[in-house]
Amino acid sequence: MIGYYIHHHGSGHLNRAISICPRLRRPVTALTSLHIPRPHPFANVVALPRDDAGTRPVNPTANGALHWVPHNDEGLMTRMALIAQWIETARPAAVVVDVSVEVALVVRLLGVPLIVMAMPGERTDGPHALVHQIADHIIAAWPRELHEPEWLRAYAAKTSYVGGLSRFEHREVLHPVQDRAASVLLVLGGAGGCDFDQATVEATAAQIPEITWKTLGLRGGPRTADPWPDICAADVVITHAGQSCVADVATARRPAVVLPQSRPYREQDVTAEMLRRHRLAVVADGRPDYRAWRCLIAQARGSDPNRWHQWQTTGAAARAAEAIETTVSKHARANVR
């Protein structure tokens, strides 16, 4: 049995787990505060209470040593106890943590082999340094050739850069209709939140009527459980720089305009800079007006979407699964007496 902790912010962490877990040779138990609809690839799901329901968290960083451990939070106490109880009962061969410094510490303190998912950005603070140090293996969901951050180089021997992880890796790539009257733009939002919404897009679209604008996942707009056909059908995709969305667009090989959103540790800014530097997408800062949008769209349409192969989405989930299985096997052999 392998445990897999899935952070509850947004949907990207869950999508990564859904990509990786079917390729593991052992059954997987998901531990998360998210609702996971069926069908899913997990043998079991341990439902954890949220740890951020308190209105006035007290000393949540433990004087700067950790990220989120507020005093006397009932949800925090219960979720950590449930994780420890599950480990005691299930005796997992390893646990993957995506992402939480505190959960990783609990896992490692109980003597369980630990695999952590690295996140892009400036992860040089003490808690991140600690979790990367204690991890038995680290998985980074982007290509090493495009970005090897300084803070990960010290752990190069135990880090697998697997490429972008998309749940659509094995879906057929559908090509847009050729010679249609108007170009089709798809604006992708995300469960993690964006600073542009349906009303913003509609106001912009009214000023650029020669283009058909569609949206998915924005506040006040339509949503779908399967955005793949819409991504493939778009002449240009406008997206934030979240890892799952970027990997999905890369898998579909669609021209893109990327608007990085504000996230802790400059996570999306660093991802967007990778894309800009290697000319995989057009990157825009701030909120472009309609005149800037015309220029950005034209740049994206003139780009070569085949450059997305550099994001290495093909085989990424299998590479991540193999890194996990190899770590499990290594520590299983080490414990044989």
The rounded distance between the terminal residues' Cα atoms is 21 Å
How many domain modules?
Answer: 2
Question: Shape from CA axes?
Answer: globular
Helix/strand order: EHEEHEHEHEHEEHEHEHEHEHH
Q: How would you classify the helix and strand content by structural class? A: alpha/beta
Instruction: Tell me roughly what share of residues is in helical segments.
Output: 25-40%
Give the mean pLDDT. Answer: 94
The proportion of residues in beta strands is 15-25%
- CATH architectural type of the largest domain: 3-Layer(aba) Sandwich
User: What's the gyration radius in Å?
Assistant: 21 Å
Widest sheet: strand order? 3-2-1-4-5-6-7
Please count the helical segments: 11
Fold-level CATH name of the largest domain:
Rossmann fold
Give the low-pLDDT segments.
none
At the fourth level of CATH, the homologous superfamily of the largest domain is Glycogen Phosphorylase B
**At the first level of CATH, what is the class of the largest domain?**
Alpha Beta
Instruction: Determine the oligomeric state from the structure.
Output: single chain
In short:
This protein has 337 residues and is an alpha/beta fold. The protein has helices spanning 12-20, 74-90, 101-109, 126-134, 150-153, 198-207, 228-233, 243-252, 267-277, 290-301, 316-334, and strands spanning 2-6, 28-32, 44-47, 94-98, 114-118, 137-140, 159-161, 183-188, 211-216, 236-239, 256-258, 282-283. It has 2 domains: 2-165 and 315-334, Glycogen Phosphorylase B (Rossmann fold, 3-Layer(aba) Sandwich); 183-311, 3-Layer(aba) Sandwich (Rossmann fold).
